Amino acid sequence: METPIYSDNQVLVTKSRFVSLGTTYAMSGITSTRLLKKKPSYGAPLFILFFAVVGLFHFYSPFDGLKFLGSVLVGIGCVFYLIKLRPDYTIVIKTASGEVEALTSKDKVFVESVLGSVNQAIIQRG
């Protein structure tokens, strides 16, 4: 039986294989690995925030209180959404057939620990 180098409910890394979200990669076929950081898209929330700010000025009158309040709430929601956006971290493995994005998560520590385990398995494989 293979001894796991890393194991949890999503990932298994042993000396001979890397299993990520149900896909198995043979360690003998992996030539290199790298960590890829994908920045989130800010376009849509900034676009909505722009129109919320325009709405604030457009509906600023004592007679349009609900429209003004709606613009304020949409603006606040967009600001919180922008604050909560985090990048995706992806393990990219290179094989003879090309590069594959094997695992993606917003948890950098998790992805780095899996990547370290895959690299350790490659070294142990020899």
If you had to describe this structure to a student in words, what would you say it looks like?
It holds the Pfam family DUF6232. The chain crosses the membrane at residues 42-60, 66-83. By secondary structure, the protein is an alpha+beta fold. It folds into 2 domains: 6-39 and 89-125, PH-domain like; 43-84. The chain has 3 helices and 7 strands, in the order βββββααββα. It has helices spanning 43-58, 65-84, 108-125; strands at residues 6-7, 11-13, 17-20, 23-26, 30-38, 88-95, 98-105. A 4-stranded antiparallel sheet has the order 1-2-3-4, with helices on one face. It has a 3-stranded antiparallel sheet with strand order 5-6-7, covered by helices on one side. A hairpin with a 2-residue loop joins strand 3 and strand 4. Helix 1 runs antiparallel to helix 2 (65-84). The longest helix is centred in the middle third of the chain and has 20 residues, at 65-84. It is rod-shaped and about 75 Å long. It starts with 5 loop residues before the first strand and ends with a helix.
- The amount of beta strand, in percent, is 25-35%
The CATH topology of the largest domain, please?
Answer: PH-domain like
Q: Roughly how many Å is the radius of gyration?
A: 23 Å
Element-by-element helix/strand order: EEEEEHHEEH
Treating each run of at least 4 consecutive H or I residues as one helix, how many helices? 3
Largest sheet: 4 strands, antiparallel
Q: N-to-C terminal Cα separation, in Å?
A: 19 Å
- Averaging pLDDT over every residue, what do you get? 85
Strand order, largest beta sheet: 1-2-3-4
> What oligomeric state do these chains adopt?
single chain
Which CATH architecture of the largest domain is right? Roll
Q: Report the strand count.
A: 7
Helix content: 40-55%
CATH homologous superfamily classification of the largest domain = Pleckstrin-homology domain (PH domain)/Phosphotyrosine-binding domain (PTB)
Which structural class best describes the helix and strand composition?
alpha+beta
Q: How many structural domains does the protein architecture include?
A: 2
Low-confidence stretches: none
CATH class of the largest domain: Mainly Beta
How would you describe the shape?
A: rod-shaped
Protein name: QacE
Transmembrane segments: 42-60, 66-83
InterPro entries: DUF6232
Keywords: Membrane, Transmembrane, Transmembrane helix
